[in-house]
Design a protein that fits this description.
Elements: E1 3-9, E2 13-20, E3 25-26, E4 32-35, H1 42-57, E5 65-71, E6 75-76, E7 81-82, H2 97-105, E8 112-116, H3 117-128, E9 137-142, E10 146-151, E11 156-158, E12 165-166, E13 169-170, H4 171-175, H5 177-188, H6 195-198, H7 203-225, E14 232-236, H8 247-256, E15 262-265, H9 271-284
Parallel strand pairs: 1-5, 5-8, 9-14, 14-15
Antiparallel strand pairs: 1-2, 2-3, 2-4, 6-7, 9-10, 10-11, 12-13
Helix pairs in contact: 3-9, 7-8
């Protein structure tokens, strides 16, 4: 069996595990999640990453090891160079991360492959998730931000629709967690941190906010996603866990606009990017 590790790197964490490519699943006993402050120094970030990777890979043959890494953009994925100039990871801007990791892990840089985090989500769902039997798939991740990705039967690509024009602003302003936070504050004067908190509030306020969200989400699908002519829409991210609360109105709005899409909700959520990074590395190797 190929020795392979899938890694998901975010602004506040690194999550990783060994992956069984035959069973298309994570080896749960190797799962590692560590906090990493992306605003820290270059050395602090690399030390935290290496420590986590060593925990997951301690028993693997380094010469035969494949490493797939899901990473947010902007990023030079082919060469492994960070292009993030502001905010997160600013101290590793233009650093060749592939070479740094290879040196510190005592592997060849050819054994390390990077993929966009949204595309990794899709690759994971195709590889071992809820859309293994489809060829044209559009994926959205709904959470702190809006991720969009398309799979054409061969490869997943990041569609980067988060800042596309929508209503009076951009798509992400209406579909990410901050919309729920802002809308609840507008209606009540109180604070919530996201959909999980909203589910503890009155049914009346829940219904109003989820109905408005369903309208926006359907509007986004009709305006941008239907052009891809996907067979299926796969939804991930934390907001997807609240899908039953806006499903009926969302589907109604799609049908009203002659958009008859099969909908699948991720069953593996955070693990999709780990599986996707690993499967992408297998493809590249």
């Amino acid at each position: 069996m190929q020795n392979i590790i899938g890694i998901d790197i975010g602004g506040s964490h690194i999550t990783l595990a060994q992956v069984n490519p035959e069973k298309r699943e994570i080896l749960a006993s190797t799962y590692v999640r560590e906090h990493v402050d992306s605003f820290e120094s270059r050395e602090t970030i690399f030390s935290a990453w290496i420590s986590a990777i060593e925990k997951a890979a301690h028993d693997l043959n380094r010469e035969e090891l494949l490493i797939g890494i899901a990473m947010p953009g902007p990023f030079d994925y082919e060469n492994g160079i960070s292009l993030m100039q502001q905010g997160k990871f600013i101290d590793i801007y233009q650093v060749n991360i592939k070479d740094e990791l290879a040196k510190r892990l005592s592997v060849s840089s050819d054994q390390i492959h990077f993929v966009n985090d949204a595309a990794a989500f899709m690759e994971g769902e195709v590889f071992g998730g809820c859309v293994q039997d489809y060829n044209r798939i559009f994926g959205v991740t709904l959470g702190t931000g809006l991720g969009t990705t398309f799979y054409d039967g061969t490869t997943a690509t990041d569609e980067d629709l988060w800042d596309s024009p929508f209503k009076e602003s951009i798509c992400e302003d209406y579909l990410a967690t901050r919309w729920f936070v802002n809308r609840y504050a507008e209606l009540t004067g109180d604070q919530i941190s996201g959909t999980k908190d909203l589910l503890e509030k009155s049914e009346e306020i829940q219904n109003q906010i989820f109905n408005e969200y369903a309208d926006s989400f359907a509007g986004f699908i009709v305006q941008y996603v239907s052009n891809y002519e996907p067979e299926v829409l796969v939804i991930g991210g934390n907001i997807a866990k609240a899908y039953p609360y806006f499903e009926k109105r969302f589907i109604h709005n799609l049908v009203k606009n002659n958009c008859n899409l099969t909908i699948r909700i991720s069953a593996i959520f955070e693990d999709a990017a780990i599986l996707g990074a690993a499967s992408y590395a297998l493809k590249k190797a």
